[in-house]
Design goal:
Strand order of the largest sheet: 1-2-4-3
Order of helices and strands: HEEHHEE
Radius of gyration: 16 Å
Distance between the termini: 24 Å
Shape: elongated
Number of helices: 3
Length: 128
């Protein structure tokens, strides 16, 4: 198999994370971007909150709704961590050292950051 370009790695991660959210949450993000920079893989998802989650945040006192939602999302990511790490390792060819996660209940933006053992090798794109 040909070595992937940086863009192909980033696109494959987007697909994998979108599929994951679809399977685990019943819906994917409205918008997703992945940035590979050195040994960091940053995934930025927008519009991830379900209708139920949005309702929860609106109806509960601010801190309570937010904390509850963050807890549930973090727990979900922790539970699915092996699946996500395996996917990242398969796409990049590099082992994952750690995974960091946060979500904003205000903006519905979610960040998942993977730290890799080494920067992945990728094929340089020939500029015409």
């Amino acid at each position: 198999s040909m070595m992937k370009t940086q863009g192909e790695i980033e696109a494959a991660i987007c697909d994998g994370i979108s599929r994951f959210e679809q399977e685990y949450l019943g819906r994917g993000p409205k918008h997703i971007q992945t940035f590979l920079t050195g040994d960091l893989l940053v995934v930025r998802l927008k519009g991830v909150l379900t209708a139920a989650e949005q309702h929860l945040v609106k109806t509960l006192p601010t801190d309570k709704g937010r904390d509850l939602l963050k807890q549930v999302r973090c727990q979900l990511i922790e539970t699915a961590r092996p699946v996500m790490e395996a996917m990242v390792e398969q796409i990049t060819g590099v082992k994952v050292v750690s995974l960091h996660h946060d979500i904003s209940t205000k903006t519905g933006e979610e960040l998942v950051i993977f730290t890799l053992v080494t920067p992945p090798n990728f094929r340089e794109v020939k500029r015409r």
